[in-house]
Design a protein that fits this description.
alpha/beta, 10-stranded mixed β-sheet, two-stranded parallel sheet, 16 helices, 14 strands, transmembrane, TOD1/MUCI70 glycosyltransferase-like domain-containing protein, transmembrane helix
Length: 455
C-alpha cells in the first residue's frame, strides 16, 4: 500500500512539475507576443527594461533595442545658440511654383497639390543656379489648407519641433526631459487632418485656448483641411518634408514621426547634430540598408507599396545614373531613417526638401528611396550629417500605431491589378503613369544581397 502511495505521489509531483513548466512557457510566449505585437493594450504590458526581456533578447527571441549613448552636452541652459544664420553660398533666392500647369490631356482635372511638373521641369530643378523657382507643393486649389488661427500662431515660431498624425493612426505622445528653456523657445506643432482631430477628441483630451487654438498637452495642433492625397502615408510627407513651407518663419526644425515620444531636449539635439559640427541637415543612417535597391527589395517583400510601381520607380533612378551604394561613395549610406530630421532652414536645404517632396509626389510615397537620389543629383552642394543609427534609437521611445495601416495598393503584384481593381491613386504618383523620355525596358536592375533578417 505504501509503495502504491509513493508511486502515486511521485506521479502527482511530476504532473504538477510539467504543468508548472507549461505555465511558465505559456507566460514566456505571451511575453514575447506582447512585446512584438502592434496592439496598444498588449504592447503596453511589455516591460522592455526587465531581466526577462533582456534574457529573451540574448536568446534571440525578441528584438533588442539598438541603442547607444548620445554625446550630448550636459545642460540645455548653457547651450550657446548661434547668432548668425548659415550663409547661402550658391543658391541665393528660392521661389515656388504656385499655379498648376495642367496638361491639355487632363484639362478637366483639378489642380494637384504638387502640380503637374513635366520631365523637363524636373530635370531643370536639379541644376543649381543663384535664383531658382521650383515646384514645392501647396499649389493653389490643391488642398492642405491651414486655418487662419494656425497661420497666425506659427508666424512666431523660429524653433520648431514638428510631428504629424493622419487618418487617426496615432495619438500624440508627450515629450519628456524637456527643459524650461526649450519649452519657452520651441513651438511643438502637431499637424493633423480632420479624421485624426476627431479621433483625438474621442480618445483623448483636446483643449482650446481663447484664440481658438487646439492643444493636446505641449502639442499645438495644426489642422490641414482637405488632404491632398488618397493615401494617408503620402499625406504625412507634407509636414515631414515640407516643414519650411508650413512654417516659413522657422529657422530650425526637428521632425519626429507621430508614433514616437521624444525623450531628449530639443536644444541638446540641435547642439549635438547641427551646431557642434557646423552641419545644417542631419538624419540617421538606416539600421539595415545602405543601397536604395536593397531598400526597394525590402519594401516589396514587406508590401509597403505596389511591387511593379516600386520597380518602375527605381528603374528610373538606375537609368538616370544612381548606382548602388558602395564604400567608394562619399556618404555613409544612401538610405536614411526618415522618422527624425534635424535641419536649419537654409536655401539649399529648402531646395533639397522641395526636390525630395517632388519625387514623393511623382513616384511612390517611399521617401527612403528618393532621399539618396536627390542627394546624388545635388552632389556636393547639399551637405548633410548622417549620424549612427544607435543614436537615433536613443532619441525616442517608439509606440505602436493605434491600428495597422493597410491599403489595397500595397498588395498589388502586377500592373494589370491596378487597372482592373481601380487601385491607382488619383492625386499622387503621376510620374509612374506618364510616358518616360527614355528606354526603361532596357534597364536591368542590380542584384540585391539580403543582408539582414529585416531586409
Amino acid at each position: 500500500m505504501k509503495i502504491v502511495w509513493k508511486k502515486g505521489f511521485v506521479r502527482l509531483v511530476l504532473v504538477a512539475g510539467i504543468l508548472w513548466m507549461l505555465l511558465i512557457l505559456l507566460a514566456l510566449l505571451f511575453h514575447i507576443w506582447s512585446c512584438q505585437t502592434s496592439v496598444s493594450f498588449l504592447s503596453a504590458m511589455c516591460n522592455k527594461d526587465s531581466k526577462v526581456y533582456n534574457m529573451l533578447g540574448n536568446m534571440g527571441l525578441v528584438s533588442k533595442p539598438h541603442r547607444c549613448p548620445i554625446p550630448l552636452s550636459n545642460d540645455p541652459d548653457k547651450i550657446v545658440i548661434p547668432t548668425r544664420r548659415t550663409p547661402n553660398e550658391i543658391l541665393k533666392n528660392l521661389s515656388y511654383v504656385m499655379e498648376d500647369e495642367v496638361p491639355h490631356s487632363e484639362a478637366q482635372s483639378s489642380p494637384l497639390f504638387g502640380g503637374h511638373p513635366s520631365w523637363k521641369q524636373r530635370e531643370e530643378s536639379f541644376k543649381l543656379k543663384s535664383n531658382m523657382k521650383v515646384h514645392c507643393g501647396f499649389i493653389q486649389g490643391g488642398g492642405a489648407e491651414m486655418n487662419r488661427v494656425d497661420i497666425k500662431y506659427v508666424k512666431k515660431c523660429k524653433f520648431v519641433v514638428a510631428s504629424g498624425i493622419f487618418d487617426g493612426y496615432d495619438l500624440p505622445h508627450q515629450p519628456s526631459n524637456i527643459s524650461l528653456r526649450s519649452k519657452e523657445l520651441f513651438c511643438f506643432l502637431m499637424v493633423v487632418d480632420e479624421v485624426s482631430l476627431k479621433f483625438m477628441r474621442e480618445n483623448g483630451t483636446v483643449k482650446e485656448d481663447g484664440a481658438g487654438g487646439k492643444w493636446v498637452g505641449i502639442w499645438r495642433l495644426v489642422l490641414l483641411k482637405h488632404p491632398p492625397y488618397d493615401e494617408p502615408r503620402r499625406n504625412g510627407k507634407v509636414p515631414k518634408i515640407l516643414t519650411h513651407r508650413l512654417f516659413p518663419q522657422a529657422q530650425y526644425s526637428i521632425w519626429i514621426d507621430g508614433k514616437m515620444e521624444l525623450i531628449v531636449d530639443p536644444l541638446l539635439i540641435l547642439e549635438r547634430y547641427l551646431w557642434r559640427g557646423r552641419h545644417t541637415f542631419a538624419i540617421a543612417q538606416h539600421k539595415h540598408h545602405r543601397s536604395i535597391y536593397e531598400e526597394a527589395d525590402s519594401n516589396k517583400r514587406r508590401k509597403r507599396y505596389a511591387r511593379p510601381l516600386i520597380d518602375l520607380h527605381i528603374k528610373i533612378y538606375y537609368y538616370e545614373g544612381m548606382k548602388p551604394w558602395s564604400s567608394n561613395k562619399k556618404t555613409n549610406s544612401d538610405v536614411p531613417e526618415g522618422a527624425i530630421i534635424i535641419r536649419e532652414h537654409t536655401a539649399i536645404n529648402n531646395l533639397f526638401s522641395c526636390l525630395w517632396f517632388n519625387e514623393v509626389h511623382l513616384f511612390t510615397p517611399r521617401d527612403q528611396l528618393s532621399f539618396g537620389y536627390v542627394a546624388y543629383r545635388l552632389g556636393d552642394a547639399f551637405k548633410f550629417f548622417m549620424f549612427p543609427n544607435c543614436e537615433y534609437n536613443s532619441l525616442f521611445v517608439l509606440h505602436p500605431h493605434t491600428r495597422e495601416h493597410s491599403s489595397p495598393i500595397e498588395w498589388v503584384k502586377q500592373l494589370d491589378e491596378l487597372k482592373k481593381g481601380n487601385l491607382r491613386e488619383s492625386r499622387g504618383g503621376l510620374g509612374l503613369f506618364t510616358p518616360y523620355p527614355g528606354d526603361l525596358d532596357s534597364v536591368v536592375l542590380p542584384n540585391v544581397t539580403r543582408t539582414s533578417k529585416a531586409g
